[in-house]
Amino acid sequence: MAGIPDKTHPAGPRCTGWLPVLLLATALICAGCLTAGTGEVAENRAESLPVNSVTPQETVTTPAGPHPVHPVAIASKKITITRPRTLPVFSVPTAQPAAALAISNLSNARSAESINNYLRWESFRARTDPAEAARIKTLVRDADAAIGISTITEELVLYRVAGREQAHAILNTSRFADDGFLTCTFDPSVAYHASDKTGRDQDGYLNLLVMRQKNGDHLLYINESAREILLPRAMTWELVGAENINTLAFTLESVPRYQNDELKNIRLLYMTPGS
Predict the structure, then answer these.
(1) Do 70 and 197 fall within a single domain?
(2) Distance between CA atoms of 77 and 147, rounded to whole angstroms?
(3) Nearest to residue 150, comparing CAs of 98, 92, 222, 93?
(4) Parallel, antiparallel, or unpaired for β 235-250 and 228-230?
(5) Residue 110 to residues 39, 135, 192: CA-CA distances in angstroms?
(6) pLDDT of 13-57, one tens digit each?
(7) What is the rounded end-to-end Cα distance, in angstroms, of the chain?
(8) Under 8 Å between Cβ of 183 and 222
(9) The domain boundary residue, chosen from 100, 134, 149
(10) CB 222 within 8 A of CB 103
């Protein structure tokens, strides 16, 4: 009928108002979908990486702080004695008088104990009279100087007996510090012979600190017969491993001083210089 519009076929001008809106909405929806998709992919990739992943530029370090170290049980072990080849024995007669006096005092057990107690304990320093304190300070200064000019050009492995409480404290905390001067030996048979009967802990082990010295370190070879080495004072060491050894023996190239001693039930505590 004339005058009545055909609703099944809308005229062209009616479409021009809503078609651009429809196209714009479609474009926005598509753009939103793309954006969401990109975010989901990035999130999935992030979740696929381990939380503690390490890039090649990063390093993993052991957390600092005290931690117990459990010894490894070993039936038998052979070690090689590293005798100093280039380090001369300190000679009191030919040394400077001040150095000779200081090292002589540290080579004497009673005098060395007095010096080290002064260095280690505030209570000992508090009850030391001024004249004795001045004497000890002079000996410490001269011993520092003597050790400071004695440098090794080789690697040495040194041993020192650790007391019962001291050894277990080291095992529990993985740390050992001493403000005094320490004497060691490069021959574990010397340490064993001196402490076999009196130095064992409640587990029946004789505890030996194993201290590796490298080229450039300062130490003093003070006693040939005792195969004794003097280390600098105020050193800190970290425990990096421990072994409970039923029988400790020596390689053929080693010449222990006490060759007839059979080293039984030894605990080796491997130390490295700390900070």
Answers:
(1) yes
(2) 33
(3) 222
(4) unpaired
(5) 76, 15, 21
(6) 444 444 443 444 444 444 444 333 433 333 333 333 333 333 333
(7) 105
(8) yes
(9) 149
(10) yes
Q: Residue 7 carries which side chain, given as an amino acid letter?
A: K
Nearest to 214 by CA among 272, 269, 172: 272
What is the pLDDT, as a whole number, of residue 127? 97
Total number of domains in the chain: 2
- Coil, helix or strand for 167? helix
Q: What is the pLDDT of residue 64?
A: 57
User: Of 79, 81, 83, 82, whose CA–CA distance to 248 is shortest?
Assistant: 79
Q: Are residues 138 and 173 in the same domain?
A: no
- The one-letter amino acid code at 251 reads T
Q: Residue 23 has which token pair?
A: 């196209």
Q: How many angstroms separate the CA atoms of 173 and 236, rounded?
A: 13
201 phi, psi to nearest 5 deg: -90, -175
The residue among 104, 133, 149 that closes a domain is 149
Burial classification of residue 274, based on how many CB atoms lie within 10 Å of its CB (0-12 exposed, 13-18 middle, 19 or more buried): middle
| pLDDT < 50: residue spans in the chain | 1-63
As a whole number of angstroms, the distance between CA 116 and CA 181 comes to 6
User: Cβ-count burial of 28 within 10 angstroms (0-12 exposed, 13-18 middle, 19+ buried)?
Assistant: exposed
Whole-model pTM: value is: 0.75
Clarify whether residues 168 and 202 are in a common domain: yes
Both tokens of residue 272? 């490295």
C-beta of residue 119 within 8 angstroms of C-beta of residue 140: yes
Q: What is the pLDDT of residues 245-270, one digit of tens each?
A: 999 999 999 999 999 999 999 999 99
